[in-house]
């Protein structure tokens, strides 16, 4: 390692950047990447950038670009990327830039198809053995665009060209659900069945054969099974649906909750009413109140009347509340919330200090984060529940966006879905650390929610999400009401 690079990296342990594997490089500089000051990060970025002109291989450039991206030195990263395009016009980095800058920015299926053909012409799959997954991402996106436009023929044509069996279910499932939602059951059914069968294959492998690919493929089992079985249920093929579900629960009992909706309907359709009632009761007790009509029907059928139902219903809801209260105890904390001043969609400054005296709910999210998006109907319902309470404020902190035009995308997303949210852009870095607000709050993954009391202290912190609107409403109510009370300590 050259002396000038060591000097620039004096605040870190010594590294051999050009020869080092990416993971080794990131691991050695982890303390600076995660907790370094602005000057430390700038020093590391300068050191990396100054070494670039000595590189011989595309992999060295890839490491440099990834490091500069992590350090958020976009100007240097773009400069290195331009050099790569000139030096390796047929390489994978230039190919990836084309995919990002041309293919993904194309909007219509026809435009994406044109870009895909250009991709194959300039960067054939055969030139990149072991990188077939990069092309599968593109194929899935292309098929999805055609599916959204209602062109099932072109969508399935491109899905059939995918290479990696362990991953293709992502494309098949997304397209299948899109076509199903549009009413094209004929085209959706074989796609969902393929996804289900693939996932079943991987989930049924002996434990010693389950690598990361197998585990990834297995994750789609419940969703594809639920969608496919839902088609069978709608067609009245209850026995076939039930056979598939019970087969699934044998090899993957952890999927029981995800399959509960189609399970009870299949049990009901085959006359197994008591079992259907038991599954329904568990669903309702977990906050899925949309099944109440069926629950009432079975209650009256099995009990001969509706006598006692009100008491039974109240008991289920009280049990759920107790369960939520026990659950949120695990999320308790008590520490001052980092102060902030962020701009909203109108360009106005919103500060935490200005909200003192209110319980504040922070929801960190991004437009690309599907779990975040799935929780929004529930969060909207929770916010509506407190619409007349001036002592509660919901703030939706948009963070970790990947595109330069993210602000326009955020506005478009909020307007399209008509969410009445107060959205703040998390793009103002701390001058001392260079961190955005998410990092200052210790966020490692999104969605992440913080409940801050009237005195500015974080009382609860939770990650993950649920698509269950009723459950989110009840959970947020318990969190907010608990935060209104004085801290026990």
TrEMBL record:
Protein name (record): Thioredoxin domain-containing protein
Keywords: Signal
Domain of life of the native organism: Bacteria
Signal peptide segment: 1-18
Coiled coil: none
SUPFAM superfamilies (alphabetical): Thioredoxin-like
Domain Thioredoxin: start-end pairs: 331-485
């Amino acid at each position: 390692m050259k002396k000038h690079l060591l000097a620039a990296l004096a605040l870190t342990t010594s590294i051999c950047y050009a020869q080092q594997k990416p993971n080794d490089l990131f691991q050695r500089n982890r303390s600076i990447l995660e907790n370094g000051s602005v000057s430390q990060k700038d020093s590391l970025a300068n050191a990396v950038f100054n070494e670039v002109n000595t590189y011989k291989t595309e992999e060295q450039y890839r490491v440099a670009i990834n490091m500069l991206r992590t350090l958020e030195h976009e100007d240097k990263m773009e400069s290195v990327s331009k050099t790569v395009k000139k030096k390796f016009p047929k390489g994978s980095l230039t190919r990836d830039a084309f995919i990002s800058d041309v293919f993904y920015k194309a909007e219509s299926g026809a435009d994406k198809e044109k870009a895909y053909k250009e991709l194959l012409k300039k960067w054939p799959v055969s030139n990149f053995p072991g990188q077939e997954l990069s092309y599968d991402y593109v194929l899935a996106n292309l098929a999805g665009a055609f599916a959204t436009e209602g062109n099932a023929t072109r969508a399935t044509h491109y899905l059939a060209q995918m290479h990696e069996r362990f991953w293709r279910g992502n494309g098949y499932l997304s397209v299948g659900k899109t076509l199903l939602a549009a009413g094209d059951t004929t085209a959706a059914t074989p796609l969902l069945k393929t996804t289900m069968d693939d996932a079943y294959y991987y989930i049924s492998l002996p434990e010693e054969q389950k690598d990361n690919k197998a585990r990834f493929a297995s994750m789609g089992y419940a969703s594809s099974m639920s969608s496919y079985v839902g088609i069978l249920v709608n067609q009245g093929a209850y026995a076939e649906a039930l056979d598939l579900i019970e087969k699934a629960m044998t090899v993957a009992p952890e999927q029981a909750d995800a399959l509960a909706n189609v399970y009870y309907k299949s049990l009901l359709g085959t006359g197994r009413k008591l079992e259907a009632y038991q599954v329904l009761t568990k669903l309702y007790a977990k906050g899925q109140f949309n099944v109440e009509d069926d629950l009432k029907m079975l209650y009256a059928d099995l009990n001969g009347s509706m006598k006692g139902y009100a008491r039974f219903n109240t008991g289920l809801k009280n049990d759920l509340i107790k369960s939520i209260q026990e659950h949120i105890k695990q999320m308790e904390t008590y520490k001052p919330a980092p102060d902030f001043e962020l701009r909203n969609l109108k360009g106005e400054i919103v500060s935490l200090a200005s909200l003192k005296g209110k319980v504040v709910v922070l929801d960190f999210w991004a437009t690309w984060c599907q779990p975040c998006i799935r929780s929004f109907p529930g969060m909207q319902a929770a916010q509506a529940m407190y619409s007349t309470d001036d002592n509660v404020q919901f703030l939706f902190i948009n963070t970790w966006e990947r595109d330069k035009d993210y602000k326009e995308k955020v506005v478009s997303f909020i307007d399209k879905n008509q969410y009445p949210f107060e959205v703040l852009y998390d793009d103002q870095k701390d001058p001392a650390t260079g961190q955005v607000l998410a990092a200052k709050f210790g966020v490692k993954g999104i969605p992440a929610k913080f409940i801050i009391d009237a005195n500015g202290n974080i009382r609860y912190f939770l990650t993950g999400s649920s698509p269950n609107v009723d459950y989110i409403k009840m959970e947020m109510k318990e969190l907010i009401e608990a935060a209104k009370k004085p801290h026990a300590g």
